[in-house]
């Protein structure tokens, strides 16, 4: 037996499956997972985009409001995972159909690939800062490739170890964040932060900031059921993920807004979404933290991308190792496209446009149309309640397409007073319900056939 074959068999035995699991994680454990997951440099640097486009105080307020609004979607989708034991992309078979779910699955892989590129670039920039400060040689693209290569290797061999140490990395991040907050507010007063002049030419408005913050929650919701299906009860999943996600996002984004404001008040050049801009005033320890946090989180992103592909269609499982090698190679090549960093806001808005309607449909379908339960048919490769028309629920596809187009138009063509993500979510939710009322009346709930003893896991 060849080394490749032995490795492939080992990975197949240890890779996550899309079938239902019985969760055992406590509220505290789920909270720590979510706290660790979002204490990452991309969230921190997102906060650097907002000041001086809007004033500092308003930026902090919108970060809090947008995070709490987005967290509602995140925990609601995550709770479906807790009740059924299924990961997020497997759950899309419920509303979209066995084959129709490939639409959100493909979008998810594209989004995760984009995240892996962005994070590899940021890790490369942070590592380049450390190396250049010692040698005078700067090669950020090379270091981005090196970082992503390490990430792919870890995703194949070491994702379980990374998951175990993420809470410790989060503790280090929190310590560094506390140091930065203390340094910032002992150097300048809150009034000085608030007095930073607004630069409207940057193009950020309060509504755009709110949409970006909500889109951040939407981007994490693609993994909400993946994490929360391991929660022991719905209470543990909802409270743990809600508190963990909200705290980490508010702290990290507020730190980004504070750090860029500190740079402005210190007379430096405020370059948004640039780790070096905020690393220089606070030294190499922050660069080390950025590098390690990105490596840890990006390993789980790449691993999640691979498991999404291998479990895309029940009964037709793709081999883990070749999928990991192909997707890993694409992620390494993409890590050289540094121009994506300049389009990060567009990237987040795209996530909101693609996935806010998906989650609106998932929530409406599970809690209202399917009456809070999915039957074992959702695990079928063909046939059953979720086969719809040749495996596709065209009502869901149509509602998703209309919602995605609406979000795009309300962002770039006809801006609304409350942004684009919220009205797009509501429009899709109502539209899907209207199209699915006949199905709801035709299929009463079947408690005896629920997945994963969902009723027993609600306590």
From TrEMBL:
InterPro entries found in the cross-reference section: CodB (IPR030191), Pur-cyt_permease (IPR001248), Pur-cyt_permease_Fcy2/21/22 (IPR026030)
Protein localization: Membrane
Coiled coil location: none
Keyword Transmembrane among UniProt keywords: yes
UniProt membrane topology term: Multi-pass membrane protein
One Pfam short name: Transp_cyt_pur
Keywords: Membrane, Transmembrane, Transmembrane helix, Transport
TM helices/strands, residue ranges: 32-51, 57-81, 102-131, 137-157, 169-189, 201-223, 243-264, 284-306, 318-341, 347-368, 388-410, 416-435
PANTHER family reported in the protein's UniProt record: CYTOSINE PERMEASE, CYTOSINE TRANSPORTER CODB
The family this protein is said to belong to: Belongs to the purine-cytosine permease (2.A.39) family.
Name of the protein in question: Cytosine permease
């Amino acid at each position: 037996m060849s080394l490749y074959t032995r490795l492939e068999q080992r990975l197949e035995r240890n890779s996550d499956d899309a079938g239902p699991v019985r969760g055992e994680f406590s509220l505290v454990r789920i909270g720590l997972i979510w706290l660790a997951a979002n204490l990452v440099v991309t969230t921190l640097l997102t906060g650097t985009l907002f000041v001086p486009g809007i004033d500092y105080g308003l930026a902090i307020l919108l970060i809090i409001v947008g995070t709490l609004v987005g967290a509602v979607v995140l925990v609601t989708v995550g709770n479906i995972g807790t009740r059924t034991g299924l990961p997020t992309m497997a759950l899309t078979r419920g509303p979209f159909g066995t084959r129709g779910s490939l639409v959100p699955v493909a979008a998810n892989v594209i989004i995760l690939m984009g995240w892996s590129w962005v994070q590899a670039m940021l890790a490369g920039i942070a590592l380049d800062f450390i190396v250049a400060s010692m040698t005078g040689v700067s090669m950020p693209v090379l270091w981005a490739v090196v970082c992503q290569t390490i990430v792919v290797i870890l995703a194949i061999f070491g994702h379980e170890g990374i998951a175990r140490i993420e809470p410790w990395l989060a503790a280090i991040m929190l310590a560094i964040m506390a140091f930065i907050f203390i340094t910032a507010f002992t150097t300048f007063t809150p009034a000085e932060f608030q007095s930073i002049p607004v630069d409207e030419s940057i193009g950020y408005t309060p509504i755009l900031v709110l949409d970006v913050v909500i889109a951040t929650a939407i981007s994490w919701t693609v993994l909400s059921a993946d994490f929360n299906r391991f929660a022991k009860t719905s209470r543990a999943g909802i409270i743990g993920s809600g508190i963990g996600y909200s705290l980490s996002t508010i702290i990290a984004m507020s730190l980004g807004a504070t750090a860029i404001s500190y740079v402005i008040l210190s007379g430096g050049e405020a370059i948004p979404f640039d780790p070096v801009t905020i690393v220089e005033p606070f030294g190499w320890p922050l660069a080390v933290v950025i590098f390690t946090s990105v490596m840890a989180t990006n390993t789980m992103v790449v691993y999640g991308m691979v498991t999404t592909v291998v479990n895309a269609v029940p009964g037709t499982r793709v081999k883990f190792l070749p999928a990991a090698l192909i997707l890993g190679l694409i992620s390494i090549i993409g890590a050289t496209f540094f121009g994506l960093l300049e389009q990060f806001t567009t990237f987040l808005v795209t996530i909101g446009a693609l996935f806010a309607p998906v989650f609106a449909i998932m929530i409406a379908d599970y809690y209202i149309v399917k009456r809070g339960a999915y039957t074992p048919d959702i695990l079928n490769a063909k046939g059953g309640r979720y086969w719809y028309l040749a495996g596709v629920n065209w009502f869901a596809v149509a509602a998703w397409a209309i919602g995605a187009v609406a979000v795009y138009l309300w962002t770039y063509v006809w801006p609304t007073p409350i942004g684009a993500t919220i009205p797009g979510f509501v429009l899709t939710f109502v539209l899907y319900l209207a199209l699915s009322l006949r199905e709801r009346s035709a299929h009463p709930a079947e408690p005896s056939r629920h997945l994963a003893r969902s009723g027993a896991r609600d306590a």
